[in-house]
Amino acid sequence: MRVISGTARNKPLLSVEGMDTRPTIDRVKEGVYSSIQFIVPGARVLDLFSGTGQMGIEALSRGATFGVFVDQAPKAIDVTTKNLKNCGLFDKARVVNMVSQDFLRTTKDKFDIVFLDPPYNLGILDEILPKVCEILSDDGIIIAESELGWKPQEVEGIKLKKQYKYGKVLVSKFQKESQQ
């Protein structure tokens, strides 16, 4: 696992030991970034269920101005912190050890890009999408990783733009509808 592009290009990323964290494979990460590459520079990014932090770190490496990394697992928080420091991006980040739903309920921040990669098959995406929509800036993007077959519920304020299949992984791209 490595950073694909930008200031931290080819920097190796640590992974979390055990089976609790499922890192995004490079092929998926490359596909996601090819679809959002032009909105990353200058963006404020949230990596919810961050695991190793690789999705948010990739954004910071490619010119995002600030990233927040949230995970409830102390091991994941430790690995994310080490990865940010190793990539020279820690000063552009805030790492939060908290349950994602609690973070969404308490944050006052707005984000241009939100990465969601929760545990599969637990209904978490359907539960949190409305809350994520509330913290998304106008025209902001949500990238949600899920198991194949996930059918997103309609959420007022965001529109499903595209879905991509990578083996057993489904990536859904949502965009907030402008409030103008």
Counted by DSSP, the helix tally is 5
- Separation of termini? 41 Å
Provide the helix percentage: 25-40%
Total individual domains: 1
Shape assignment:
globular
CATH topology name, in short, is: Rossmann fold
Named CATH architecture: 3-Layer(aba) Sandwich
The beta-strand count equals 7
Question: Average pLDDT across residues?
Answer: 91
CATH superfamily: Vaccinia Virus protein VP39
User: What is the CA-atom radius of gyration, in angstroms?
Assistant: 15 Å
Structural class: alpha/beta
Largest sheet descriptor = 7 strands, mixed
Which sequence of SSEs, written as H and E, runs from N to C? HEHEHEHEHEEE
Give the uncertain stretches in residue-range form.
none
Which percent range describes the beta-strand content? 25-35%
At the first level of CATH, the class is Alpha Beta
The strand order across the widest sheet is 3-2-1-4-5-7-6
Molecular structure report:
With 180 residues, the protein is an alpha/beta fold. The mean pLDDT is 91. The protein has a single domain (26-176), classed as Vaccinia Virus protein VP39 (Rossmann fold). 28% of the residues lie in helices and 28% in strands. It contains five helices and seven strands; from the N terminus they run H-E-H-E-H-E-H-E-H-E-E-E.
Gist of the model:
By secondary structure, this protein is of the alpha/beta class. The protein has helices spanning 26-36, 54-61, 74-86, 100-106, 124-134; strands spanning 44-48, 66-71, 93-97, 111-116, 136-147, 158-166, 169-176. It has one domain: Vaccinia Virus protein VP39 (Rossmann fold).
